[in-house]
């Protein structure tokens, strides 16, 4: 472990020295409607180098977050290559980016050993060991690796319950710690604690629960109306009660117990605004699961999906550009759609401000000078009345 720890130390020192203060955009531009909309967009990109179109969109203020997948990891010199990409994107930003990855461990594992990264294990493996020390060890190694590479968001832990043994999205891939919500919370808390040590924002998922489904939202609608129960909310309630939930990722499941209209969770105001925010009192960031998963794209047009997600209360929409058969979603296209909705009055400027305030608050909290060398006194001020 000594060479690895040495690598992390040197990478953080280099990051501290090399990333400039990049507030080239004027305060007026950073406080504009166009810029605020950009903060709500997370984009995936092709290739194993920084994508010029993404860099330009970041400079134009049309992207506030970037997501990485295994396809983005250089196959040789992976550490250095990956750091170069994250740094390039951060250097293009007038306000620091959230840079995320799904690094749950096990089968949802972008940073594989074959690329020279540390070993990871699945949630199911940890759950079976019943060892908090094991959970702590692997979570600490994961978070340290992410911090050294320039990531600041991990879309983990998965807090879905292993209710349906035949569930192909969560249970069979070993993404759940247990069918017992107390066990799930027990391990999820430790994962979050270890990530916080390294200043990595975590996002428990997939709200309001995907573990009882008989279908996978990657491929189409997953209706849990007949299989879901209130116990699937318990991990979120317990994490919220203990101040362990800084962000939450939604799922695209349909649950008519919660939304009689049958809207997927990500697009449902009843699920996000009424249940999660008002009933459960969550004030942190809400990320969508990938908006290009077929549970969304096979049933909703891009414009309608964006409108419903924002009105539901989502803060950051993820467009991975990683789903086979799904049309590429560029930052320009998504940004233009949202801007037109605001100009037409379909989405209010105040609704954009609500998400903007939460995003900026999260960036001020998690993206400190130790990780990306930014002067947060220069961060944009928020406007609008708080609801």
Question: Can you walk through the features of this model?
Answer:
With 387 residues, the chain is an alpha/beta fold. It has a single domain (33-378), classed as Glycoside hydrolase, family 3, N-terminal domain (TIM Barrel), CATH 3.20.20.300. Helices cover 42% and strands 7% of the residues. It is built from 15 helices and ten strands. The chain has helices spanning 2-18, 27-30, 33-38, 52-59, 78-92, 123-129, 132-149, 181-197, 234-241, 269-279, 294-297, 302-312, 331-344, 349-366, 369-372; strands spanning 41-43, 65-68, 98-101, 103-105, 108-109, 153-154, 201-202, 247-249, 285-287, 317-319. Helix 7 packs parallel to helix 8 and helix 12 (302-312) crosses helix 13 (331-344). The N and C termini lie far apart (49 Å).
Keywords:
single chain; about 375 residues; alpha/beta; TIM Barrel; 6-stranded parallel β-sheet; about 5% strand
Please outline the helices and strands.
Elements: H1 2-18, H2 27-30, H3 33-38, E1 41-43, H4 52-59, E2 65-68, H5 78-92, E3 98-101, E4 103-105, E5 108-109, H6 123-129, H7 132-149, E6 153-154, H8 181-197, E7 201-202, H9 234-241, E8 247-249, H10 269-279, E9 285-287, H11 294-297, H12 302-312, E10 317-319, H13 331-344, H14 349-366, H15 369-372
Parallel strand pairs: 1-2, 1-10, 2-3, 3-6, 6-7, 8-9
Antiparallel strand pairs: 4-5
């Amino acid at each position: 472990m000594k060479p690895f720890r040495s690598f992390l130390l040197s990478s953080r020192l280099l990051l501290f020295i090399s990333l400039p203060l990049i507030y080239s955009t004027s305060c007026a531009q950073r406080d504009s409607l166009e810029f605020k909309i950009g903060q709500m967009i997370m984009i995936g990109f092709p290739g194993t180098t920084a994508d010029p179109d993404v860099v330009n969109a970041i400079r134009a203020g049309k992207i506030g977050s970037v997501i990485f997948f295994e396809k983005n990891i250089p196959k040789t010199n992976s550490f250095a290559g990956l750091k170069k990409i994250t740094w390039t994107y951060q250097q293009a930003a007038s306000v620091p980016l959230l840079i995320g990855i799904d690094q749950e461990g096990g089968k949802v594992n972008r940073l594989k050993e074959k690329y020279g990264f540390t070993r990871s294990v699945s949630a199911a493996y940890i759950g079976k060991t019943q060892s908090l020390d094991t959970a702590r060890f692997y979570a600490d190694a994961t978070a340290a690796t992410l911090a050294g590479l320039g990531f600041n968001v991990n879309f983990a832990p998965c807090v879905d319950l292993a209710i349906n043994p035949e569930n192909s999205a969560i249970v069979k891939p070993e993404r759940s710690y247990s069918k017992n919500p107390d066990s799930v919370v027990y391990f999820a808390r430790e994962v979050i604690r270890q990530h916080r040590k390294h200043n990595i924002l975590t996002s428990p998922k997939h709200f309001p629960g995907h573990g009882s489904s008989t279908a996978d939202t990657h491929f189409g609608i997953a209706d849990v109306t007949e299989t879901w129960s209130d116990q699937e909310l318990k991990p979120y309630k317990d994490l919220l009660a203990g101040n362990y939930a800084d962000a939450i990722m939604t799922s695209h499941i349909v649950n008519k117990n919660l939304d009689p209209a049958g809207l997927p969770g990500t697009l449902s105001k009843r699920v996000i605004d009424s249940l999660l925010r008002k009933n459960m009192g969550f004030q942190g960031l809400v990320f969508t699961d990938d908006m290009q998963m077929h549970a969304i794209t096979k049933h909703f047009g891009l414009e309608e999906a964006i409108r419903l997600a924002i009105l539901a209360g989502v803060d950051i929409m993820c467009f991975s550009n990683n789903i086979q058969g799904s049309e590429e979603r560029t930052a320009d296209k998504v940004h233009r759609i949202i801007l037109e909705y605001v100009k037409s009055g379909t989405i209010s400027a105040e609704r954009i401000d609500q998400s903007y305030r939460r995003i900026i608050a999260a960036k001020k909290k998690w993206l400190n000078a130790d990780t990306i060398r930014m002067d947060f006194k220069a961060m944009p001020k928020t406007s609008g009345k708080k609801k």
